[in-house]
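1st attempt posting a full record on here, be nice pls
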Amino acid sequence: QNVKLIRLIPSEEQLIKKCRKGDRKSQHELYKKFASKMMGVSRRYTKSTEEAEEILSNGFIKVFKNINQYESKGSFEGWIRKIIVNEAINYIRYKKNLFVETEQEWFDYGHEELNEKNDAQEILQLIDELPIGYKTVFNLCAIEGYPHKEVAQLLGISEGTSKSQLSKARNLLQQRISGLNLIHKS
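the predicted structure (as tokens):
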């Protein structure tokens, strides 16, 4: 007679309940469940993996510290994402002024190593290289879906500045993508 051992994976609800009680093992399980997705979120707002890891780590500290505030309304992943996005914005604010970099600095990047097989990767790289203010607004509006009013509040800027930064980001991306298409065709 064969006896099979089955490891029961606790539900998200059970993990949350145990995390509220400070259970380290459950915190680790929850971290493992969401870390890679949230690393992707935090990386979109930074220039390096190291910065993204710092945001991720500080974000999860806040998740566990504030887990009692999660009211089981809406997606838990969405709640975590919001904390990570806010942590990324705070990190950017702390490190430097969002709207100081110029477009010219962005145009100094070279892309000779890019190739047609990696169109999506090329676009992600172009977004990653945007000046930090453009990149932040672009990520919040175009990727996360925040309205300009909320972006303005999050970043401490006017709604007009948010719209302008998004427009400039899109224009720069269009110019660079057009440039890449010309390189690929030749």
